[in-house]
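As a warm-up, study this chain.
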Amino acid sequence: MSTGNGKLALVVGGGPAPGINGVISAVTIEAIEQDIEVIGFLDGFKWLVEGSLNHNIALTIDEVKRINLRGGSMLRTSRTNPTKPPELMKNVLDVFHKMGITKLVTIGGDDTAYSGSQVYKHAAGSIRVAHVPKTIDNDLPLPGSTPTFGFETARQVGVGIIRNLAEDARTTSRWYIIISMGRAAGHLALGIGKASAATLTIIPEEFSERKTTLDEICDIIIGSIIKRRAKGSNYGVAILAEGLLESIGKEGLQEMIESGAIDRYGEITIDPHGHMRLGEVEFGRMIKDRLNARLKDLGLSLTLIDKDLGYELRCADPIPFDAEYTRDLGYGAVRFLLSEESAKYGAIVSIVGGKLVPLPFETMLDKETRRMTTRRVNVEGEGYQCARRYMIRLEKKDLNEPARLASLATQVKMTPEAFRERFAYLTK
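Now compare it with the structure written out below.
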């Protein structure tokens, strides 16, 4: 194979997202058409940090031309951090230099973006770098409302699952407590909840100015349960973003940690990039147990089922939106690497209005946190306000209108005054 324009390395980091193979396919095809050899490195930076020259494959058009509609990653992925300790980056660069790599495309979230930026920095101009942002969380600050690839597919698959569970809830008169992926932002939880007409959705952005507690989250759900029962419905689906666990924080869980009760729900651990591993904590079961206890205190008995929603979404086959979008991104990454601008800076690839918009690492990554600013749900915007209007949650008018208040209080055998005193804090 001719290497007239050098060699390009492909590295996938972080968790899976629908469309990774679409980027791999587009990058490989366009690069080869531009007389660039493409080397795919397996398992992210896992073997590169060890200085291994063996865990990679030369990609061809025949190998990738049909993978764009498949979920997963043909190169697999990992969360290995090549920047800690510093000598790991030296191993990565040694491999690239020995193999003649002059261009790099990383595919991943903000941690992988930072890793790519450090390759560019330490290579001192010998390796051009383009990063293609991906996450089903949709929480990276791309221009305007540009989504991250994988989000739209994850949302569509999630909606299908929630619709099935909602019908099961109605048929069996039970409540489902769904924990949706979304570490720092509630885009995925809200997107799924809004599109599937879930009973209610709770996201971290609701508490952006303060900490919340397990009891407050449970009371929000209880308010919805009571309001539904007052209207003759004994079922529902509540969707909670997993990032609520970080909104509660270790401080909010301190009592459970000190008593050892937290051990029933897993161990709070930190990943190589410094994140709390939310997937290691059974947040849904924690909420369900606390809910059951608080419902019992109110004299209510019902069946609660907790379910995590996330891993089912990450390797789904991409819908046409993401299949097309990732082709644009992969093509754009190669075009950037061949441009004069890529000799001046490494960049995150973005497509805005159908045009390639490279976003320099130095303008996108915070120098202290080494991450991109989190794009959070705008709870003051029309999108969120519309979502809230169609949720079943306690509102001020429920407590201020005597007939409504009396109907709600009757469900838990409380006086209207006692009910208002118990739940008024939720409507402030």
